[in-house]
Each structure stands twice: as structure tokens, then as C-alpha cells.
Amino acid sequence: MDRLSEFESFLEVARSESFTAAAAALGISASAISKQVKSLEARLGVRLLNRTTRRVALTEEGRAFGERIEAVMGDIREAESVVTASATEPRGVLRVGVPMDFGRLHLAEPVADFAASQPQLRIEVELGDRFVDILEEGLDVVVRIGELADSSLVSRRLAPCRRVICASPAYLDRHGRPRSIEDLTSHHRIGYAYESDRMWAFDSPTGPRRVEVPVGHRSNNGEMTRAMVHAGLGIALLPTFIVSDELRAGHLETVLADQLKSEIPIHAVYPHRKHLSAKVRAFVDHLVSHCGVSPYWDEGLDLGQAG
Known about the structure:
By secondary structure, the protein is of the alpha/beta class. 40% of the residues lie in helices and 23% in strands.
């Protein structure tokens, strides 16, 4: 038999001094109330209530037990209310992991705005480009860029991430502008330390192609790579959320955009869909609204890309 039900029945009988009144308050039969109280007394080995045909009264042991159980049940009700509230209203601590460049350039303000709008919530944000295990590191939400591996985790698409092969006009003036995929092999590529695939994928007139461009300089940070490209040190494959301003201003140029397979997704990833907490749901909704189907950082860009 459920001990909490026994406690609740006993406390209600003690308050009302009546099995009938307790049954009405709890919405169950008087016989069920009596059975639960008898079970509780049998398990404890003491009489908690004195019963007569007219009234019910607490024994000394019943009074002492009731005082303790009343406090315990109060703590349980408070715990339930806290958990229930967290399912309907963002509260507690929200731990978020985001990529360094995307987080710094495009999530700093929306995350701060979200935090300001949720007075019952404390946000902890970790920026970094290494792959993190959400469960192992105790994170609630992680923003990931790229195709997701099969996983028990749940994901929600935030925005497309479009990439371009770009270089400075000065570099292209010196080394020539690639007119074909084959031309890339004679150029200097600025590599990214965390890339899992060093091949660049294209949809050429003769079909899909994958090309590895020789790597010269290398960085583990997109903004550092952009600076190297801007300085004329080579060409690089970079997301438009890093280089869109430079492209609009003409400080960088794209090459072979009509053949490059450029688009990869940006997702919010979290552990569970069932019983999703209000804080995670509200945060992900906020990010989706901020990024949009057609991201603001791509406005005004004529990328002419293959996909």
C-alpha cells in the first residue's frame, strides 16, 4: 500500500476527527480511509487514533506522529509545486553550450535578452568548439553546427549555415581567381583545426566532386582564420555568419560559389523531448525566433550556391 496515501488519510482524519469527513475531503470511500489508517497502525505497531461511535481522537502517539508527518507532507507538497512550476515556467539554472564564433557573434545579445526576460532563471553559458557530451557535462542545451550523428538526443533546427570559399581581392590578384575546381590545388588554404573532413565537396558539371586543397596556415578559431584570409595569406572555407560583413563590403570575394555544396544545419540539441522543461523549451523557441529561416546575417548576399 502507498505510504504517502496512508499518511495523507491519517492526517485528514486527524484534522476532521471523522472518517466520513476525511473520505469526502479526499474523494475516496470511508472504508478505504479506515483500511489505510489500520494498515499504518499495524506497520507502526501503535494505535494512532481512538475510535468511538461518535468521534475519533488522536492518541498521544498519534499526536506526536501527526506533527512529524505534517511537516514531511508539507515538504513533499512544496517539492511537487517547485517541480510543477519548473515544467510551466522557466526557473532554476539553464546550462548552455555554444560554438565560440557563432556564440560570440550571434548569440551573445539574444542569450542576454532571454536571461533578462526570465527573472526566475539563471543562465550559465560555455563557449567552445570542442565536441561535448551533453549528459556527461550536465548541459541542458547545446548548439551544434553541421550534420548530426545518430543519437538518442533530440534536436531542433535553428537556421541554415551557409559556407563560402573566400579570399581577399589582393590575394586573388596575386595568385589568380580559380575558374575550376582543379585550379584550387594550386592555392594556399588556411585550415581549421577542428574540421572532421578536410575535403571540399562540389557539384561540378560532371557530377559530385571532393577536393583536398593543400593546407598552409592553420587555426582553431574562425575569426582568426578570417583575419588570415583578410591579410591575403590564403583561401578558406568559412561560414557566412563570420564573413558576411566582409563580403558585403567587398573586403573578401567568393570563388566557385555556384558549384560548392555549402549548406549545413545549425541545431539546438537537448536530451529529452518528453517532459521537456519550460526553461529549455522557452530558450530554444527564443533562438529559433532570433535566427529565422533566412538568417539576418545572409541578407544582401548573392551567393549563387549549389546547395
